[in-house]
Design brief:
This protein has four helices and no strands. The chain has 101 residues and is mainly α. The longest helix is centred in the N-terminal third of the chain and has 17 residues.
Length: 101
């Protein structure tokens, strides 16, 4: 039986996936603890800063996670809008805008 070909995992993609999973998990936590909120803020700012480099599928996962948050804080709304812009660019949504009235 031939040996199974080895695959190399992209370290950048692995790092991005770790970040997205951490954000997804953290957004499920309902808390007012200042330390946890500071951690959340750092995660969200890191995701926003890395957005131009993030794999499009992972950007979609992030968008799904921020859209699931009830009563989103301003930092979450800011990330959601940044994700909308990035996804809009990736999907060339400008081409499909409705005409202005």
């Amino acid at each position: 039986m031939p040996a199974k070909p080895t695959t190399t995992k992209d370290p950048l993609l692995q790092e991005q996936t770790r970040l997205v999973r951490a954000v997804e998990a953290n957004l499920k936590v309902v808390t007012q603890d200042p330390e946890e909120l500071r951690f959340r803020g750092s995660l969200l700012r890191k995701a926003a800063a890395d957005l131009p480099l993030i794999n499009p599928s992972l950007a979609t996962r992030l968008y799904e996670a921020v859209c699931d948050v009830d009563f989103a804080q301003p930092e979450i709304v800011t990330l959601r809008k940044s994700l909308q812009a990035a996804i809009g660019t990736q999907l060339n949504l400008k081409e499909h805008r409705a005409a202005k009235a």
